[in-house]
Amino acid sequence: MTKYLFRISDCFLTFIYHINIAPARTDNFRLTFSAFLLQIMDPNLLPAVLRTTLPPKLEKIKNGSYTENDNDYPIHLYLKENDIRVQEDGSDIIQFLKRKNLLITGATGFLGKLLLEKLLRCCKDIGTIYVVIRTKKGVDPQSRLEDFLNNWVFCKLSQIRPNYKDNVVGISGDFEFDGLGLSNESRGILTENVNIIYHVAATVRFDEPLKRAVKINIEGSQQIIQLAKECKKLDVFVHISTAYSNCQEKLIKEDFYPPHIDPYKLMLMTKELPDDILEKITPGMLQSIPNTYLYTKQISEDLVKREAVGLPACIQRPAIVIASAKEPIRSWVDNIYGPVGVMQGAAIGLLHISPVNANGIAECVPADFVINNCIAASYKTVKERKLGQIPIYNFTSSNSNPLHWKDLLYIVKKIGSKILVSKVFFKFTSCWSWYYIVSFLLHTIPAVIIDFVLERLGKKPLYVL
């Protein structure tokens, strides 16, 4: 079977070589392809910067025994010394955060981790930070919290503030349950103590069923606003949205736009209608909106506008969030969403073409910049305190120094991985015909072959959708 598969691979690569799409040596393809089949499910092959925990060989950096001469992985490039400490008395924002108790929803997510880390690092006198955390895959919230706080994104923080965990308290809750799944005791603790709420929690899956997207992104926002209203010492409520929530507009101002549908009607509809009916009518409801994520995030903004009246609240709309630029670890990211997934897929030779205008502006913003803006927005909202209106802060790339999609091709060459499915080459194209042809040859055919082999090995197919 393997010999037969290699013959198919040889013919395929020979054809690709002769049309000059992917000049690659057949022998190299054999080696990488066979290694890929043997090790496809091994998580230790992922680049360190994409893991949620440190690779076993790199745990030694925690006890200071790692040196730049260690060749396991160039982790020193990501943990090298840089000025990420904060002048404790040099910022009005730091003074504002002192002794404040905070609630962060979605703290275990990508942005949530960075927000928590930044707050703990920038203000040693910060109060208690409560994080809502749910039971997942049979692991209870307390165990998940302990594992979460050992994530290597906190590695630099642990050097600066060894006792950082003392400021974090886990609150058991779940946005898919009424009342956020909070017990009366937990709700009482929050309403008595919390000064600042950062509502980061959301389902960011583009293909999320409408019912679940509404439950988390819209009803969840409604529930957290209700909790904010009950907080006796609330200074500010910050809702994280997205700059693409109104993607149907050519120019997106820092203003509210009419919702696609009344949020209360949508919530009632998703509760009353069966799942199969909702699935059938979803495309018609979305119309020109590309997915349920953007659909529900735009409607949740209207809900905030209606329900947060009288609260010191603001909305932040970041563009496409990518890896951190500097803090706390250069190039840190823990997911493969959006451009990150495309670049990683290209870096391992899995993806070779994407239907994007290479000269178009990539509205991508570093995650640490988003976090800094989020904290600054909360301070500005408190300082100006206009209870009659809810300010919106768009956070997009600079017009004076824009990032173009073609610039991301440089990143592909810099991403490291021990997995190489085939020779690394990647192109953007504006020609849909060319995209479909190349995608069929370089994506569809290899996917069918690999899934065929996986099935014969008794494993679950991964690549054919």
TrEMBL record:
A GO BP term here is: long-chain fatty-acyl-CoA metabolic process
Q: Which UniProt keywords are given for this protein, alphabetically ordered?
A: Lipid biosynthesis, Lipid metabolism, Membrane, NADP, Oxidoreductase, Transmembrane, Transmembrane helix
Q: Does the keyword Transmembrane apply?
A: yes
Give one GO term, molecular function aspect.
alcohol-forming long-chain fatty acyl-CoA reductase activity
**Membrane-spanning parts:** 432-454
Where is it mostly found?
Answer: membrane
> What membrane topology does this protein have?
Multi-pass membrane protein
This entry's Enzyme Commission designation comes to 1.2.1.84
Location relative to the cell: Membrane
Identify the InterPro entries for this entry: FAR, FAR_NAD-bd, NAD(P)-bd_dom_sf
Keyword Transmembrane belongs to the record: yes
Q: Which residues form the Thioester reductase (TE) domain?
A: 104-373
What does the UniProt function comment say about this protein?
Catalyzes the reduction of fatty acyl-CoA to fatty alcohols.
- Say which family it is in: Belongs to the fatty acyl-CoA reductase family.
**The protein's name:** Fatty acyl-CoA reductase
User: Which species is this record about?
Assistant: Ceutorhynchus assimilis (cabbage seed weevil)
Task: Print the organism lineage.
Answer: Eukaryota, Metazoa, Ecdysozoa, Arthropoda, Hexapoda
